[in-house]
Design a protein that fits this description.
The structure is a homodimer.
Chain A (H helix, E strand, L loop, with lengths): L11 H19 L5 H8 L3 H7 L3 H13 L5 H7 L6 H16 L2 H12 L3 H25 L9 H23 L8 H24 L1
The structure holds a DNA duplex.
Chain lengths: 210, 210
DNA sequence: TCCACTATTTATCAATTGAAAAATAAGCTG
DNA sequence: CAGCTTATTTTTCAATTGATAAATAGTGGA
């Protein structure tokens, strides 16, 4: 009974997608310094096959970044955040619940941190995106709801938004990177962060009005 | 004119200390996957010399962790945080100013994140230490100052402490890992975080008293 | 059924890696 | 100055790495 070398032959596009998808999980687990041989093994193919689809390891990694960062933001979130038929608190609760469902995953978190340490440009671009589409929008909406939106946003107010956002993000880091025993209820963290955000932000603005 | 091979001969302990110290900076800059040859070059010695002082690269890295984590906490901070001759706000301001002076450095931040991603045990130990010596202590002190310290600390209250602490920590991540344009005034972040901490913590306790 | 195309594997290379063994030289002690 | 100790370098190895070239085998079309 000869061992048939089961050679799975897939269409180009299908194989390529499969590679990127699995590479996300693999590199998140093992880090980007892991070998292409190990990656190929976890894919059930031989290592040179990777080079039919990606000219170099670096190119593959770039595709991994793009798959993680750029393809997981939902455009509907932009609309949700400025939907004034809901209270800001409701909007923020809804948004952060969904957003953390997406980013509080092992692959997202680890690749975000791995790529940050490697000094990848995509990382800074993503954070710039977050600033413009999250921090600034939310800050504006909170101030509007409290009728203190006569003046443009200040650096102080933006910075405090980052601080709160970072607090929520850090919950994911403790949970997924450090495997700590965090509060079992994610919504507790979100609700309190939002409450602190609105309260403290209004205090900052009123303080700076003088 | 022959090129004299300047062979610097140092006492064992001195050379060893030098190696660990410089290795901290090197690995923070280049990551732990960098070669021992590059490290040796940056030290001005040959690569096999490292193996006279550390049995393996892994052992050297472990010493780097210890140098970064364990040797930078100041015992006086434990006293400062419970010094009730000062207000909690003053204590926290003072503490976080000094603490962030220590950890908001390229080597500390990057090694903390690198080692976290590699799943090193030391990392979790450090966070346990932070919980006991920071989060819990601070939470207790805030509640005492507001005369609502009749009941023991709850998970809710601890978790919120982590959220605020994480917000401050994230400022360092944005500054040193992502090289972003953060608020130029570190003390602004600290002051607002402390204010949000005390305010929201008391709110949580009062809410849970019902 | 045969052929052409190409997805996949086998075989291989040069560079880099962590690590060990052997050779050398600095510096102390007498 | 002789001689011993050991810090440091030179030499070398086997394993692993990213990557390429050649060989092989599925698959669809004529």
């Amino acid at each position: 009974m000869p061992h048939k070398s089961v050679r799975q032959r897939l269409p180009y596009d299908e194989r390529r997608e499969q590679f990127v998808e699995k590479a996300v999980q693999f590199f998140a687990r093992e880090g980007f310094e892991s070998s292409t041989r190990d990656l190929a093994r976890s894919l059930g193919v031989t290592q040179p096959l990777l080079y039919r689809y990606f000219p170099s390891k670096e190119d593959l990694i770039r595709e991994v970044y793009e798959a993680v960062y750029l393809q997981r933001w939902r455009d509907e979130w932009n609309d949700l955040l400025i939907d004034r038929s809901k209270s800001v608190t409701d909007r923020l609760n809804l948004f952060y619940t969904q957003y953390t469902d997406v980013i509080f995953r092992d692959d997202w978190m680890r690749i975000f941190l791995f790529s940050g340490l490697k000094g990848i440009g995509l990382n800074r671009e993503y954070l710039l995106f977050i600033r413009q589409n999250l921090i600034e929008v939310i800050t504006r909406e909170i101030l509007a709801e409290h009728h203190v939106d006569q003046m443009p946003l200040s650096d102080d107010e933006i910075e405090f938004g980052w601080t709160i956002h970072g607090g929520i993000f850090y919950y994911g880091v403790r949970l997924l990177i450090y495997n700590m025993a965090v509060h079992p209820d994610k919504s507790f963290v979100i609700e309190n962060s939002i409450q602190a955000w609105t309260h403290q932000l209004v205090a900052i603005r009123k303080h700076n009005l003088n």
